[in-house]
Design a protein that fits this description.
Structural class: mainly alpha
Order of helices and strands: HHHH
Largest sheet: none
Number of strands: 0
Helix content: over 70%
Shape: elongated
Radius of gyration: 19 Å
Low-confidence stretches: none
Length: 136
Amino acid sequence: MATKNTNQPKTENEAIAATNWNFLFKWLFILGGLIAGVLNALVTNEVITIDDQYSFIVSALMTVGIFVGIFYFDSDDLINIGLRFMILGAAAGTIGGFYKIGAYLAPFFLGFSYYLGTIVLTLLVVYFVKKYILNK
């Protein structure tokens, strides 16, 4: 008698590989956001200037944001990621009034939201491609 063909669970190697990639993109997301926030705080407070010396960092952060948006986040979760983006932007706008520390926290949150904005735009493109182009 023929055996029933069911969905086979992932083998251990495939599951480990998927977990490793997920782990890598999670840390790319976290480190990219921290670097973007610190860099924006330093530029805003005129500790450093963005010229040819640091412009590659901005390009690298945008590229990392695009890859994280494609491979780490789910495009069906666009609303929740968009809310994070809006909340960080609102926090950056309101936290600037704090005495002394607000001058560093507001640009940090704004830099993190710049990075998150790249991810949100990537997710928006992926969402519309999945919904309108690949769904035919």
